[in-house]
């Protein structure tokens, strides 16, 4: 192998291909209804899911989905709206209003197909009565800076919304709702993807308040007052309005990791999967992965070289400064510091949707020379990590990974090659 970056890129591409919406949606088509078929959706992969659904559904459809700016796809019968992510905006607010309007007035003979993927939480702002878009933006910004796991974040989001936590499906009653979900959630609970607009869960506002306290979040007084009131309660899974609905997981990190491992083996490299549900502070997870890679490189344990070490899940970043970065680049900067000077280790950490944080990269590459090359470029890796400035550090040595939008979102992929 002469080019580890090309090898690692091929591993990323294999993982993304395993979540291709046209294949996965074809395998989960619902039965046709007597009445109308309405397609709705939200998420960073929802436009590509809509385009795929149009190709494989041979009946009449009407629909509307919302995706991130720049993530649209060409559709003939389903309207695509673009809005802001990761911080909501007015376009998302209008999209939420129109989605709720789209499913109202349906009958028991109608079918609603919901195409849901990660990112939908930010793309579906719909403040509860008495709250504003500014309140929901403040909540989202506090969540992103808190370091809270995605399950805790979404439990809070659904209690300040009129569309999340199953409320979009409840609005469609008595129509049957079939949700096709691409999971970016550790553990693959579909109710947590995009804060579950069509899939309710059992999380209560008591749970939301506990998470707010546990992670020291400072939310607007109006938001706190709402969450503390019964008006914030979300529908529960045993609500009869959901009785005839279906939920299908069409793609997940686990399936994509298996595909990545198979591609490595096809190229002659054994692969091991640590987990598809790793959570925790990105820099700490990066340090642990670095320790494992060093052990393999120097002692040939717990895995024998050559080997590709894979993991998935979703880490978090507690913001300590206002640098540029994302959870994958922060993970990888900590990893690079941990393998500094060790030969034979090459790694890629990237978000499978093609975007890590707020910049245009999915993640970055690193090896044992990364920190030294940063030093030559005038960059102090440890200072960059302390300032949440991983993007700047990797940009200085031309090691950013920029594949562009992928059309899917099955969480993060970490691939570590030990030669």
Structure description:
The structure is a single chain. By secondary structure, the chain is of the alpha/beta class. Helix content is 38%, strand content 17%. The protein has helices at residues 4-17, 21-26, 46-56, 90-103, 120-123, 133-146, 150-157, 167-172, 205-214, 221-227, 253-266, 282-299, 327-338, 370-376, 381-386, 390-396; strands spanning 37-42, 62-68, 78-83, 111-116, 176-182, 246-251, 270-273, 307-313, 345-351, 363-367, 400-401, 412-418. The strands form two sheets. Strands 3-2-1-4-5-6 form a six-stranded parallel beta sheet, sandwiched between helices. Residues 8-228 form the MOFRL-associated domain. One of its GO terms (molecular function) is kinase activity. Residues 308-412 form the MOFRL domain.
Strand order of the largest sheet: 3-2-1-4-5-6
Beginning-to-end CA distance, first to last residue: 9 Å
What is the typical, i.e. mean, pLDDT? Answer: 96
* Main sheet overview: 6 strands, parallel
Subunit arrangement of the protein: single chain
Question: Helices and strands, in N-to-C order?
Answer: HHEHEEHEHHHHEHHEHEHEHEEHHHEE
Low-confidence stretches: none
Taken as a percent bin, the fraction of beta residues is 15-25%
Number of strands: 12
Tally of helical segments: 16
Give the CA-based shape.
Answer: globular
Helix content: 25-40%
Q: What structural category arises from helix and sheet content?
A: alpha/beta
Radius of gyration: 21 Å
GO molecular function, one term: kinase activity
Domain MOFRL: 308-412
Domain MOFRL-associated: 8-228
Keywords: Kinase, Transferase
């Amino acid at each position: 192998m002469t080019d580890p970056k090309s090898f690692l890129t091929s591993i990323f591409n294999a993982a993304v291909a395993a979540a291709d919406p046209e294949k996965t949606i074809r395998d989960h088509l619902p039965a046709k209804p007597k009445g109308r078929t309405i397609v709705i959706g939200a998420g960073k992969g929802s436009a590509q899911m809509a385009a795929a659904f149009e190709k494989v559904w041979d009946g009449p459809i009407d629909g509307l989905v919302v995706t991130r700016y720049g993530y649209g796809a060409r559709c003939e019968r389903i309207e695509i709206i673009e809005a802001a992510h990761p911080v909501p905006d007015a376009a998302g607010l209008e999209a939420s209003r129109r989605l709720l309007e789209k499913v109202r007035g349906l009958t028991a003979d109608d079918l609603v197909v919901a195409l849901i993927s990660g990112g939908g939480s930010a793309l579906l702002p719909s403040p509860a009565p008495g709250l504003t878009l500014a309140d929901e933006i403040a909540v989202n910004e506090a969540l992103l800076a808190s370091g809270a796991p995605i399950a805790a974040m979404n439990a809070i989001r659904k209690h300040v919304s009129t569309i999340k936590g199953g409320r979009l499906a409840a609005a469609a009653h008595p129509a049957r709702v079939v949700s096709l979900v691409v999971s970016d959630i550790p553990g693959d609970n579909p109710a947590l993807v995009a804060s579950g607009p069509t899939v309710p869960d059992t999380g209560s506002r008591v749970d939301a308040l506990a998470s707010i306290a546990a992670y020291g979040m400072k939310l607007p007084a109006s938001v706190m007052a709402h969450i503390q009131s019964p008006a914030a309660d979300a529908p529960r899974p045993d609500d009869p309005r959901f009785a005839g609905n279906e939920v299908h997981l069409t793609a997940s990190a686990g399936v994509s990791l298996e595909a990545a491992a198979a591609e490595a083996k096809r190229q002659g490299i054994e692969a091991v999967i640590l987990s598809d549900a790793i959570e925790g502070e990105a820099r700490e997870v990066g340090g642990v992965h670095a320790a494992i890679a060093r052990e393999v490189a120097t002692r040939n344990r717990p895995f024998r070289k050559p080997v590709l070490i894979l993991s998935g899940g979703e880490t978090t970043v507690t913001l300590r400064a206002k640098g540029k970065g994302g959870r994958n680049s922060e993970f990888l900067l900590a990893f690079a510091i941990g393998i500094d000077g060790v030969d034979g280790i090459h790694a890629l950490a990237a978000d499978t949707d093609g975007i890590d944080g707020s910049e245009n990269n999915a993640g970055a590459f690193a090896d044992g020379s990364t920190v030294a090359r940063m030093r030559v470029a005038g960059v102090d890796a440890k200072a960059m990590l302390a300032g949440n400035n991983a993007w700047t550090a990797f940009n200085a040595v031309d090691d950013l990974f920029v594949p562009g939008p992928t059309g899917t979102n099955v969480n993060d992929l970490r691939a570590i090659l030990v030669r």
